[in-house]
Amino acid sequence: MKHQTIAWLRLQRQRLSEHGLRSRCLALLQKILRHLLHAVRQRLDRHPRLRRRVIQLLERIGIKHLVMRLQNPATPRPAIALSPRGQAIRNDLQRALARLEKP
Which of 75, 76, 78, 67 is nearest to 33 (CA)? Predict the structure, then answer.
């Protein structure tokens, strides 16, 4: 057990020097929130009605995607709504990339 603790402390020191204090604090906060959300999720799984209401509330206040990313970091971020001009630029870029990829 003592060896594992020392190894963990060394790893944290290495990560702190590589990524910086802010990054490590954010990682700790995310880890704590993930564990908290896991406990909440287990409770909500036993109460489907309450789960639907909580999801509706998260959608209404606009943080559902953040909560989902905390639960599963691989969850893709929601698409950003573009203005008509932005959509036209994106479409032009996609067409240009498609032309470059064709042999």
Answer: 67
- pTM above the 0.70 mark? no
pLDDT in tens, the chain (103 residues): 788 889 988 988 898 888 888 888 888 888 898 888 888 888 888 998 998 998 899 899 988 888 877 777 665 555 667 778 888 888 898 888 888 877 6
Q: Which string of b and e fits 54-93 if b means at least 16 CB within 10 Å?
A: beeeeeeeeebeebbebeeeeeeeeeeeeeeeeeeeeeee
Which residue, among 83, 65, 87, has the nearest Cα to 74 in the 3D structure? 65
